[in-house]
Amino acid sequence: MKANRLALAGSFCWNSDCPDYGLIDHGNIVKYGRTDKGTQRLKCKTCGIVSVANKGTVFYGEHHSPKEILECLVMVAERNSLASIHRIKGIKEETVNTWLREAANHVEVIESLLLANYSLTRVQLDAMWAYVGHKGEKVDIPKRLIGAASGEALR
Ligand SMILES: [Zn+2]
Q1: Measured in angstroms, how far is the CA atom of residue 44 from the centroid of ligand 1?
Q2: Which of 35, 41, 59, 64 has a CA that sits 20 to 30 A from residue 87's CA?
Q3: Ligand 1 centroid to 9 CA: how many Å?
């Protein structure tokens, strides 16, 4: 079985502290305005966490909650090294690297989730994407994704 699977963004609450965590189409997710780019935002009525609909998927792991994954991305954005993330959260560097690469395939969704739920700046987000660009040795992150992460529309 694969360690990481993909689930439709917004089809479930990704907060592992939520009583309705992971329940697909449970009725706890309601519409909550739109992002700057027009993507539907959603809110969990149960715990108040904000997510985004459509535009692909967010990822969650068998062993790690989406919240935990996003917290690691936040730590990268705050310029923690993968080594220090490993030390603090006990998650392997290669695992976080995999999440970063996956995140780069879902730039808008990931950014919306991070901006809606954590107080990150544009500069910190750019630092996170730059990290993917520099450290993803075996992976070729398309320039347009890095560009999109810098605020240009993805076309
Ligand atoms: Zn919830």
Answers
A1: 5
A2: 59
A3: 13
Q: Which residues contact 118 (CB under 8 A, 6 or more apart)?
A: 70, 74
What pLDDT shows up at residue 80?
93
What is the rounded distance in angstroms from the CA atom of residue 101 to the CA atom of residue 97? 6
Ligand 1 geometric centre to CA of 49 (Å): 6
Q: In one letter, which amino acid is 148?
A: A
Low-confidence residues in the chain, pLDDT < 50: 1-6, 55-56, 136-141, 146-155
Instruction: Give the pLDDT confidence score for residue 3 in this predicted structure.
Output: 32
Domain-wise residue ranges, the chain: 4-149
Residue 17: both structure tokens together: 């502290």
**pLDDT tens digit sequence for 116-150:** 788 889 899 998 998 887 554 444 445 555 444 44
CB 7 within 8 A of CB 60: yes
Could you give phi then psi for residue 58, rounded to 5 degrees?
-115, 160
